[in-house]
Design goal:
By secondary structure, this protein is of the alpha+beta class. It is built from three helices and eight strands, in the order βαβββαβαβββ. The chain has an eight-stranded mixed β-sheet with strand order 2-3-4-1-5-8-7-6, sandwiched between helices.
Length: 146
């Protein structure tokens, strides 16, 4: 059962994690030192994630390399110099991505990606928070309760 919050219709935190600039050092800390159950995602060895609720309290935790975040938002291998470089990412799953995207635009948010269908089935709208977090509202079907 989902509890909906007022505003954009946020249902739950869909995912969180640091944005890494040195994947090997981050892997050493999060996997080897902390012992988190992170695994590579397919051929993408630097994107380490939890699966199937392996880390209680977060539906999806992942180390996301900055180069991959830049590719996701801008189609570039480098983060644009005129924008704050994000240190972490945070995604909120919402009831309706189209309505949430329109509400963000109406509130003056500068969107980096607007209601895009990703190849893996997630719909996403990305923007930067005042603190420099890479935020998103999403529709992530496989993370929702049946």
């Amino acid at each position: 059962m989902h509890r909906t919050f007022s505003g954009l219709g946020v249902l739950f935190v869909a995912g969180f994690g640091p944005i890494t600039t040195d994947p090997a050092r981050s892997r050493a800390l999060y996997v080897e030192t902390l012992g988190l159950p992170l695994k590579s995602h397919g051929e993408n060895e630097d994107y380490l994630l939890t699966e199937d609720g392996a880390l209680s309290g977060c539906r999806h935790f992942a180390l996301w390399p900055l180069v991959q975040a830049a590719q996701s938002c801008f189609g570039l291998d480098e983060w644009p110099a005129d924008l704050p470089t994000p240190q972490a990412w945070l995604e909120f799953d919402v009831e309706n991505i189209a309505k949430a995207t329109e509400a963000l635009l109406a509130r003056g948010c500068q969107l980096l990606v607007a209601n895009r269908q990703e190849p893996w089935g997630q719909k996403v709208t990305r923007f930067l928070s005042p603190e420099g977090l890479l935020l998103a509202v999403t529709e992530t079907p496989w993370l929702r309760d049946p």
